[in-house]
Amino acid sequence: MPEGQPELALVVAPRMDYFTHEDWGLDFMVTSFGCDPEDVPGRAGPAGEVMHEISTHCGTHVDAPLHSGPTCEGRPSRTLSDIGLEELYRPGMVLDVRPWAEPGEAIPVEALKQAIAATGRDVEPGDAVLIRTGQERYSLRDPEYFAYPGMSGAGTRYLTGLGATVLGTDAIGWDRPIPAMRKAFHETGDSRHIWDGHYAIRDKEALIVQQLVGLGELPLTGFMVGFFPLKLTGTSAAPARVVAFVD
What percent of the chain has pLDDT over 70? Predict the structure, then answer.
């Protein structure tokens, strides 16, 4: 993990133990059935795992409005379990912003406008807008993975103002990296540099989805996308399986 950001460990992977067929699994069967190891077919029981620690923001995940603050559009922010399934199956649009993406920098609003124009249609109310920054070409071993381009408050408000209700990115975070925002804040004293992409959701509700993969395999438009998070009660997020449906 990057120096000074140990909290990212649980965002990229859970801490878990793996139990094999031959050890834990075999012992489980012997104990459960009161038999000898030789009685267990193939001397192999079930495999299993135990997650000791996992963030609700682990891996590809959906952020509910609650993650961005206690209120959204002047009302109590919705939790993940408040979100209807119909809100998680939306027409998709990929914005390829790779020509403008710079490590640690905010994606300019003008870049979003040009990427939208390249799709051949406007953002429509209820769209899921997926930002392709090119980050999926990096792995956790690459320092570039954590120096991703992100979204500003202005860029986020621009997309929600057009009607997007789901905002996705192939980067590990929606905003710029925390070290970049921290540096900008201390250089300017302007608190608008603090997590401004997420805080913009307080003004206009949308769901944020991070750590997407496979955006390069999709057409820019003309597909549906399903965001299928674990339905965890009262949480700010949940890991999700995201599936695009292309005719």
Answer: 97
**Rounded-to-integer distance, Cα 145 and Cα 213, Å:** 13
- Give 87's pLDDT tier (boundaries 50, 70, 90): very high
Evaluated on CA atoms 101, 57, 126, 196, the torsion sign reads: negative
Task: Check whether 1 has a pLDDT greater than 70.
Answer: no
Whether 131 contacts 108, CB under 8 Å: no
Domains of the chain: 6-53 (no CATH), 61-246 (3.50.30.50)
Token duo for residue 31 = 């104990």
Three-state SS sequence of the chain: CCCCCHHHHHHHCCEEEEECHHHHHHHHHHHHHCCCHHHCHHHCCCCEEEEEECCCCCCCEEECHHHHCCEECCEECCCHHHCCHHHHEEEEEEEECHHHCCCCCECCHHHHHHHHHHHCCCCCCCCEEEEECCHHHCCCCCHHHHCCCECCHHHHHHHHHHCCCEEEECCCCCCCCHHHHHHHHHHHCCHHHCCHHHHHHHCCCCEEEECCCCHHHCCCCCEEEEEEECCCCCCCEEEEEEEEEEC
Q: Are strands 75-76 and 71-72 parallel, antiparallel or unpaired?
A: antiparallel
CB 46 within 8 Å of CB 28: yes
pTM, two decimal places? 0.92
**Matching residue, tokens 């050890």:** 23
